[in-house]
């Protein structure tokens, strides 16, 4: 994967769930900055969500922005969780891209894991908020 010149990571799904060991890793090696969102759609894949960016969407995907203390190390670790390492068969279910994430005061460019497979047949999470969706 691409080296991490950017130190910000935006997460919107299971990496926000307490008890997830990868979420625990993020909390140990990253600093929560603030919440944010990007224009797009969120889907329920079953045990986790799938986000697609779409600048023309009226919907948003909501999540949290983290500042990584060691971006290359952290992203390598999270790449394993997301199944996008070189040892995984292609096409990968997710891709890691840089996206502008809107916050209450500005926009930050962050690494985001976006879904890379077809979404036909998946249920849309209209709120765009995975944690809220799981609580309901």
UniProtKB/TrEMBL annotation:
Domain Gamma-glutamylcyclotransferase AIG2-like: 9-131
One Pfam family hit: GGACT
Entry-linked InterPro entries: AIG2-like_dom, GGCT-like, GGCT-like_sf
Keywords: Transferase
MF GO annotations: transferase activity
Highest taxon of source: Bacteria
Transferase recorded as keyword: yes
Protein name, UniProt field: Uncharacterized conserved protein YtfP, gamma-glutamylcyclotransferase (GGCT)/AIG2-like family
